[in-house]
Amino acid sequence: QVQLVESGGGLVQAGGSLRLSCAASGSIFSIGTMGWYRQASGKQRELVATISSGGSTGYADSVKGRFTISRDNAKNTVYLQMNSMKPDDTAVYYCKHSSVWGMYWGQGTQVTVSS
């Protein structure tokens, strides 16, 4: 089983940066794919970025070139560096761990970008 706790959310002005962290407990962290998702008010949850156990990354078109996902398996932590942020990035951000043993979600962290 994996437990995930996100942190690093907050209020930032347009053009600014934030770094989200997702700390995981559980011995299977390093062998799963990690993802960051977000859900804006009144909208469906959407994929932001993923990183495989081998370090391969993928991004939604809306964040390519602005966001960077990374992971530190020694610390059981995945990060999302968000630069050049826009008001449309405002959402609750969730991390997810996926493996053959199942999927686990964190509780989410609010990110608000003011114009």
What does this 3D model show about the protein?
There is one protein chain. This protein has no helices and eleven strands. It is an all-beta fold and 115 residues long. Strands 2, 4, 5, 6, 9, 10 and 11 form a seven-stranded mixed beta sheet that branches. A hairpin with a 5-residue loop joins strand 5 (46-51) and strand 6 (57-59).
Brief account:
By secondary structure, this protein is mostly beta strands. It contains no helices and 11 strands. The chain has strands spanning 3-7, 10-13, 18-25, 33-39, 46-51, 57-59, 67-72, 77-82, 91-99, 102-105, 109-114.
| Mean pLDDT across all amino acids | 95
Work out the number of β strands.
11
Kindly, what is the distance between the CA atoms of the first and last residues, rounded to a whole number of angstroms? 40 Å
Query: Which sequence of SSEs, written as H and E, runs from N to C?
Result: EEEEEEEEEEE
What is the rounded Rg? 13 Å
Principal-axes shape call: globular
Number of helices: 0
Strand content: over 45%
Segments where pLDDT lies below 50 for 5+ residues?
none
Global structural class: mainly beta
- Main beta sheet, described? 7 strands, mixed
Helical proportion, percent range: under 10%
